């Protein structure tokens, strides 16, 4: 408390500027805020990449359902794709827009009239392992994520 009073007294006498201690306190506070904010920001980026993949997989499933409807409810094995990437992927007469960094793989089982769409974002799989994937299966109608 005395140091605060001393600092105020110096200011009254006309001294200008900040003391070294005051500057160090501000730098330490900024450092603590940055240490808290950076991990939160990185997690938000990962969440956005996952959401982007989910959206692309859902859009691809809508395109395949449209094609199936145009084909009297049947799936064509020529619609299978091993790697659809940005910006567009043509499947039959449909064009699927794929977000930057996302990859989609479409597997068609014409015998059972089902399909599977698997997607991942290269930023979530920087090691090339492809472990963070989102999969849609038309047999179950469910969307699942694997980390």
TrEMBL record:
Spell out the subcellular localization from the entry: Membrane
What segment(s) does the record annotate as region Disordered? 128-147
What InterPro entries does the annotation carry?
Answer: Bac_GSPG_pilin (IPR000983), N_methyl_site (IPR012902), Pilin-like (IPR045584)
Which stretches are transmembrane? 20-42
In its UniProt entry, the species of origin is given as Bifidobacterium apri
Provide the Gene Ontology terms for cellular component: membrane; type II protein secretion system complex
Q: What is its main location?
A: membrane
Q: What is this protein called?
A: Prepilin-type cleavage/methylation protein
